[in-house]
Amino acid sequence: MDPELINDCVHCGFCLPTCPTYVLWGEEMDSPRGRIHLMRQHVEGTPLTDEMAGHFDACLGCMACVTACPSGVRYDRLIEQTRAEVEREHVREPGDRALRELVFQLFPYPRRLRAMRLPLRLSAGLRRRIAPRLERINPSLAAMADLAPESAGRPRLPRRVRAIGRRRAVVGMLTGCVQGEFFPQVNAATARVLAMEGCEVVIPPSQGCCGALSLHSGRPEQAGRFARRTVAAFERAGVDTVVVNAAGCGSTMKEYAEILDGEWAERARAIRTVDLAEYLVELGPVARRHPLPLTVAYHDACHLAHAQGVRSQPRALLTAIPGLELREIAESAICCGSAGTYNLFQPEAARELGERKAERVLATGADLLVSANPGCTMQITSAIRRAGTAPIRVAHTAQVLDASLRGTERIA
């Protein structure tokens, strides 16, 4: 924990109404300034107690407070450092340790996730019958079963997708772990959209996890290994720009130069990471947009809006589609409760935030919810399903653009 970063906080309270856990519970120690107060206590010699660790664990790391802070406090860096300290010093209960080990030996590894797709699909089909029993046994396992997305086809991606028409750029594309295994259709749509906008898309076959889940959960060594492998994969592919369609991955990759040392930091700086919506707006459109008669509610993923500052670009892309009406969601800055692994480690708080978000999404009356992060998609879909009302379809920005560019109303 960096004392200089801690001292930047003047405890003004501007962060309070933006913090999801403070909004839920109204507890000072579950606000950013309250947690910074605890960090200061620990730096000054107070041992890391179970209660203190609990307040740090309860933070979603959504970074809404970073956006709201007038003093420029780097709470994002502070909570990353603090979580690493918690993992080093805090002795967790055996069940908690086992759950965390399961998650971090599964989710960052695409092949292992692939092997889990069938059991997760079965649990998705049985969720209504098994959820109450599983909830009593282990709320985190119940959350995992409830979040599992419905079965989808698995389109195969080539290693290179040629530009359609005049080639305007050559870019790499991150496929990700959760995105690649649970939402491969989003990656396929992303590659098609980039190609239709004149980009040659290079997709390295051995990418793996970018390190986001590990970094945001106090495992910097594991995150560093994944980051170095990702940098090396795109170096071998010969690209210096990487387009990312998952908010959490994009925000982490943009921080590679901060989390890596020496030569690897320099190598990371040589590769530019850019969000898909950010890149498409920067590039400018050439492909024709066909009408889509839809009302769309756009969800701001925290690691896109707060961490990367990408808010206007997805909205600009969507509103440029003829016939599409964009509707704003109330409390758009409040996290949906996904936050990487938060909905697995803090299922009760995540469930409450998910239901709050679902209520506001449904209030828009939109035909379609658009999200730019796989965790958000699973979290909000799950909460809408539990609400028991008329379901609303959920898609990625890339899928909506893909349908418009191809001239079909079928969003695939």
TrEMBL record:
Binds 2 [4Fe-4S] clusters. GO terms for molecular function: 4 iron, 4 sulfur cluster binding; glycolate dehydrogenase activity; metal ion binding. The keyword Iron applies. Residues 1-29, 50-81 form the 4Fe-4S ferredoxin-type domain. Coiled coil: none annotated. Keywords: 4Fe-4S, Electron transport, Iron, Iron-sulfur, Metal-binding, Repeat, Transport. InterPro entries: 4Fe4S_Fe-S-bd (IPR017896), 4Fe4S_Fe_S_CS (IPR017900), Cys_rich_dom (IPR004017), Glc_ox_4Fe-4S (IPR012257), Helical_ferredxn (IPR009051). Its cofactor is [4Fe-4S] cluster. Its EC number is 1.1.99.14. SUPFAM superfamilies: 4Fe-4S ferredoxins. It is an enzyme of class 1 (oxidoreductase). It catalyses: (R)-lactate + A = pyruvate + AH2; glycolate + A = glyoxylate + AH2. Component of a complex that catalyzes the oxidation of glycolate to glyoxylate. PANTHER family: GLYCOLATE OXIDASE IRON-SULFUR SUBUNIT. This is Glycolate oxidase iron-sulfur subunit.
